[in-house]
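hey so i finally got around to running both of the ones u sent me last week. sorry it took forever, my laptop kept dying halfway thru and i had to restart like 3 times lol. anyway pasting them below in the order u listed, first the sequence line then the structure token line for each. didnt double check formatting much so if smth looks off just lmk and ill redo it

first one:
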Amino acid sequence: MAHNDPTSLEYIIAWSVYFLSGIGCSWVWWKLTSGMRNRGGRDVLRGIVLVLIFTPWYTGDDIRIYAPAFLILAMDLLLEGAESGLQGGVALMFSSFFVLLVLAVRLYLYRRPKPV
């Protein structure tokens, strides 16, 4: 099996380690932002970090091979320039939009007056 085969043991171990590390980093970020008084700002910062850590995107070579979207965006911008650097950026944009939409709906439901 090749190293870039999505069924290879190395690929599965790498994503497992990345996922567990992402959970650890998210937990640390959660604790760091828990002291913020502004709930809206705290939730947006938490959402941005979750999007950056946990949004995957396919690499340009093979649609079956995934990598973190922020790394795809950074590598595209560094190696290919701004014209083709939108591949990982589109995934991050849609993920960020979804997180902001969830936060807006949650804020709306939280502020809605409760029936008596």
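and the second one:
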Amino acid sequence: MSFFTSIAWAANQTTPSAPSGAPAASPIASFLPLIFIILIFYFLLIVPQQRKQKSQRELWAGLKKGDKVVTIGGIHGVISQVEEDEVLLEVAKDVRIRISKTAVASKKS
């Protein structure tokens, strides 16, 4: 009988036991801070950038003859002709430059 007792005692000594006072951490709980940081970055950086890109595409699609615009380079002018990807911008009397629609930064009132 002592043979079986020594085997049971050895088996009990080799199994690791969790500390009785501390609960085991779940894998989901350890990833919660990382998930929280990713959500913060998404809502503070990615969403506003997507909104800005959408408004810029709407601006380029809505360009029409007679609009007063400012280019990315700071050139102010009036659109005199609109083509598929380009606009003809009149910057002074009888001075026109051809620019890409994507070079238009904003419309002036």
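quick thing i noticed on the 2nd:
The first strand starts at residue 68 and ends at 71.
anyway thats it, ttyl
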